[in-house]
Design goal:
The chain is an all-alpha fold. The protein has one domain. The protein has nine helices and no strands. The two termini are 20 Å apart. This is C_GCAxxG_C_C family protein. It comes from Aquipluma nitroreducens.
């Protein structure tokens, strides 16, 4: 699937009403051979900055899930793989911060949307859709770059 198709898929999920975290993970679920329903459930509570705590951006945490499924370790003694996957997480985080200045949901909202926008759920179109796009754009490149 092309980058544009992957981004479009994520945005389509987001526009359907899935959380930012779900939209990101779902965009990659097929290529990761992850059952769609399982992907929906795993990522369902990370929207709104982790269950609307407004902490780490849900799109970013969805990206971390993709990186874990792509590069993570399943052997607790495999420290090299674990550390390499942590490096990918830090890279996604850094690249996102380069674009948006923060990965904290509350800060993103404050920067781009008014309290009234958030109360009326207009922030989804103002900033959340953009961050889903940006995370998938970054992830697509990160997961295809030769090591």
């Amino acid at each position: 699937m092309t980058k544009e198709n992957t981004i479009s898929k994520a945005l389509s999920y987001f526009d359907e009403g899935y959380a930012c975290s779900q939209s990101v993970l779902l965009a990659f679920s097929e290529e990761l051979d992850l059952n769609e329903n399982t992907a929906k459930l795993i990522s369902s509570t990370f929207g709104g900055g982790m269950g609307r705590l407004r902490q780490k951006c849900g799109a970013v945490t969805g990206g971390f899930m993709v990186l874990g499924l792509t590069y993570g370790n399943s052997d607790p003694k495999d420290l090299d793989t674990k550390l390499a996957s942590y490096k990918k997480v830090r890279e996604l985080n850094h690249l996102f911060e380069d674009i948006h200045g923060t990965t904290i949901c509350a800060e993103l909202l404050k920067k781009h949307a008014s309290e009234a926008d958030v109360a009326e759920r207009k922030h989804h179109k103002i900033i959340c859709r953009k961050v889903v796009n940006d995370v998938v754009d970054i992830l697509y490149d990160l997961t295809r770059r030769p090591e």
